[in-house]
Amino acid sequence: MTVALGISWKSSIKTWINASLEQGHSVESIIESLTDDGLDKEAATSAVHALLRGEMPNTSSYEYDPNPVLPDRIIHAHDRAIHALLRVEQPQLILFDNVLSGDECDQIIEMSKSRLQPSATIDPATGLFEQAENRASESCTFWLSENPLIDVVDRRISALMNCPLENGEGLQVVRYRTGGQYLHHFDFFPPNDPGSIAHLTDGGQRTATLIVYLNDVEAGGGTSFSKPGISFTPRKGQAVYFRYFNNLGQLDPATEHAGLPVGAGEKWIINKWMRRYPISR
């Protein structure tokens, strides 16, 4: 026997699914539990996937709720005191100073050089990684806490973003050569793209990003947010935080951004993405 979803039960199921995902239960086991309780498998799958996706930008006005990052001017993040230099309320942007030391930046660059591969983006239809047409760069990803230095940086960033360590993707290091850029894009997985589901089933939707600058760029290479009209110039050790997923499950369209072309020299950054739920390792 299958059960149709009423409004009140939809709310109850949403709460139960969310709690199960937060506890680390797999998507498959949650769907199986719902079907065992009499819910049609297609309806159960749809309910879980809808929660994982989040709400598409522009389907309703994005509501700015309190930012999980502490409001203090100086944030004590794991092993380091980090200064907030600038805060923007809409969208939620923060510029941090001294997130990494100069020596840490240099070490991460050196560790990354032998691992770099041409950067890829996700095919919206299939979810597979493909050669990026809108992104000219090379990148590599470190496993969470892969070595002592990466562990310290992961824990520091987790504390700074006020997000559980296990919700974080591995650090992605990116090198842009002269002329390299990343055209305007969102960091979250587009909810209406069929290919997004493959990436959402482990960890759910991305909620926030921290971009850490690993070197001073000779010319160009800024991070530009078109809706607020703000651009950040890379400075070694500094970082830009932005949040795009609120507690209602909405996604902020004002966080569309671009990596501007590097005019001279190279640009090295770390991307750190946080997810709504723990990621299995």
TrEMBL record:
Positions of transmembrane segments: none
DNA repair found in the keyword field: no
Pfam families: 2OG-FeII_Oxy_3
Requisite cofactors: L-ascorbate
One example GO MF annotation: L-ascorbic acid binding
Keyword annotations: Dioxygenase, Iron, Metal-binding, Oxidoreductase, Vitamin C
Source superkingdom: Bacteria
Domain Fe2OG dioxygenase: from-to ranges: 167-276
PANTHER family according to UniProt: PROLYL 4-HYDROXYLASE ALPHA SUBUNIT, TRANSMEMBRANE PROLYL 4-HYDROXYLASE
Protein's recorded name: Fe2OG dioxygenase domain-containing protein
Species for this entry: Nocardia jinanensis
